[in-house]
From TrEMBL:
It comes from the Bacteria. Keywords: NAD, Oxidoreductase. Belongs to the aldehyde dehydrogenase family. This is Aminomuconate-semialdehyde/2-hydroxymuconate-6-semialdehyde dehydrogenase. InterPro entries: Ald_DH/histidinol_DH (IPR016161), Ald_DH_C (IPR016163), Ald_DH_CS_CYS (IPR016160), Ald_DH_CS_GLU (IPR029510), Ald_DH_N (IPR016162), Aldehyde_DH_dom (IPR015590). It comes from Gelidibacter algens. PANTHER family: 2-AMINOMUCONIC SEMIALDEHYDE DEHYDROGENASE.
Length: 492
């Protein structure tokens, strides 16, 4: 993403538009941004660089839709959300191909994970809202009863990142509208296309105009305008920790509700008593799925000393066999990274690791694919590090790069796992039940996987602690976030 351009200076190809009040429209500023295809490094379209005025228009549409939408029955909201889900499923191939082209991820992955999960988000919250209940408290001996209303907040803002574009965009939008809010949403400017296509699906599903408004543009202008808007009363944000900190500063004096899902540096802790083959296969996936660009990837691998050498050899052999290729090729396991800037950032960390005496066990180089020489490809990289204190173990790289190191004891590995500023997730490989419980209790994270990775049940709370965020998404947690609790006390 770069280069601001005026509309007249660019050819009218593959230009996407904002979706406001049920209509597609150009940005009022008439400013456009180039959109790059990571697989070949070429500009293949433009997106609006929306201004404050576009955000205001989106807000106005959302505000006028709120009165009716917040009073729409739960059954009707549910019906529309489930219809959106069905239409996404019917359009699976089109959406998966668009997601892959925009993001660089293998089409196969988008077909298997991203788009089905986006559809599940709508189906799940379409069902969940019909089961969402609030509490009542009988004040015994005082002839009074309290009950809690769970009311939609009004107009809310949803801002999402580029790594799982439609998946994370809809993970926010679905609970927000299910709960009766109207939304001003902004996808990442790096991967805007499936969010653009979603507008069409919502219209077809009969979502009333103004309930969902999608504005495209840079975080620092369009995103900032959403966060600063005095009447957008809640912000659900997923993205980097530094952006989250900035958003928190802007939102705090405006007293907005805030949900922040931020970066991670997740430990993958492997004990000798694990199911070895299952662990090995899953660890390859938890390291490199989506080019390692999943906030939940286990980027620091700690292996118990007795199996360290065996694991190192087997893991490196498997990683070397992963095919880096064009995202449309069915045999590709590692597609392109999302952008040139991101590729360069990830490569800088490989250099840093070398200067810190990290040993590159495999990978480390850019891959130049025939016919796609300008694509953003990188070999999956495994670095052996001598200490958890190095930058490669402390800072989020968010690419196809993992570190490995051995450990001797449970206490030692727990100390290393917790010695980072982040606290999103951890993966634990062991068959020892007591150890599982001890470790799960003490790991400073929001999510622990034991003998599995990224197995998701959408009813469970999702989110991190420390610099990985504030609040939880998922299930009723999300519906609670997108509603205000109001207590009514009746004396009889
Ligand atoms: P980012 O913070 O750069 O951008 C995320 C979104 O915020 C984009 O839409 C961007 O335009 C917008 N934005 C940027 N500045 C803004 C501002 N001042 N005001 C309002 N909006 C603004 O993150 P990214 O590079 O797109 O995504 C990668 C990061 O996201 C990684 O750190 C990753 O760990 C994190 N992530 C976290 C989770 C999670 O659930 N915890 C999930 C996926 C990704």
């Amino acid at each position: 993403m770069a280069n601001r351009k005026k509309q007249d200076e660019i050819p009218a190809f593959a230009r996407i538009q904002n979706y406001i009040n049920g209509q597609y429209e150009n940005p009022s500023s008439n400013e456009w941004l180039d959109n790059y295809c990571p697989a070949n490094g070429e500009v293949y379209g433009q997106i609006p660089n929306s201004s404050k005025e576009d955000v205001e228009n989106a807000y106005t549409a959302a505000k006028s839709a709120f009165k009716q939408w917040s009073q729409t029955t739960l059954e009707e909201r549910s019906r529309i959300l489930i219809k959106i889900s069905e239409l996404l499923e019917e359009n699976l191939h089109r959406f998966a191909e668009a997601e892959s082209k925009d993001n660089g991820k293998p089409v196969a992955l988008a077909k298997e994970v991203d788009i089905p999960r986006a559809a599940s988000n709508f189906r799940f919250f379409g069902n969940a809202i019909t089961q969402f209940a609030s509490e009542s408290h009988e004040s015994v001996g005082q002839d009074a009863i309290n009950f809690t209303l769970r009311q939609p907040i009004g107009v809310v803002g949803c801002i999402s990142p580029w790594n799982l574009p439609l998946y994370l965009f809809t993970w926010k939008i679905a609970p927000a509208i299910a709960a009766g809010n109207c939304v001003v949403a902004k996808p990442s400017e790096v991967t805007p296309v499936t969010a653009f296509l979603l507008g069409e699906i919502c219209t077809e599903a009969g979502l009333p105009k103004g309930v969902l408004n999608i504005v495209h543009g840079l975080g620092t202008s369009t995103g900032q305008a959403i966060v600063e808007h005095p009447d957008i009363k809640a912000i659900s944000f997923t993205g980097g920790t530094a952006t989250g900190a900035h958003i928190a500063k802007v939102a705090a004096p405006l007293f907005k509700k805030l949900s922040l899902e931020l970066g991670g540096k997740n430990p993958n802790i492997i004990f000798s008593d694990c199911e070895y083959q299952d662990m090995l296969e899953t660890t390859v996936r938890s390291s490199f799925a989506n080019q390692g660009q999943i906030c939940l990837c286990g980027s620091r691998i700690f292996v118990e000393a007795p199996i360290y050498e065996k694991f190192k050899n087997d893991f490196v052999a498997k990683v070397k066999a992963l095919k880096v290729g064009h995202p449309s090729d069915d045999s590709t396991k590692i597609g392109a990274l999302v952008s040139k800037a991101h590729l360069e950032k990830v490569m800088t960390y490989i250099k840093i690791a070398k200067t810190e005496n990290g040993k590159i066990l495999c990978g480390g180089n850019k891959v130049v694919l025939k016919n796609y020489e300008n694509g953003y490809y990188l070999e999956p990289t495994v670095i052996e590090v001598g200490s958890n204190n190095c930058r490669a173990n402390q800072e989020e790289i968010f690419g196809p790069v993992v570190t490995i190191m051995p450990f001797e004891s449970e206490d030692e590995v727990l100390e290393m796992a917790n010695s980072v500023k982040y606290g999103l997730s951890a993966t634990l490989w062991t068959n020892d039940l007591k150890r599982t419980m001890r470790m799960s209790n003490q790991l400073q994270v929001g999510i622990v996987w034991v003998n599995t990775w990224m197995m998701r049940d959408l009813r469970t709370p999702f989110g991190g602690i420390k610099a990985s965020g504030v609040g939880r998404e998922g299930g009723f947690e999300a519906l609670r976030f997108f509603t205000e609790a109001k207590n009514v006390c009746i004396k009889y």
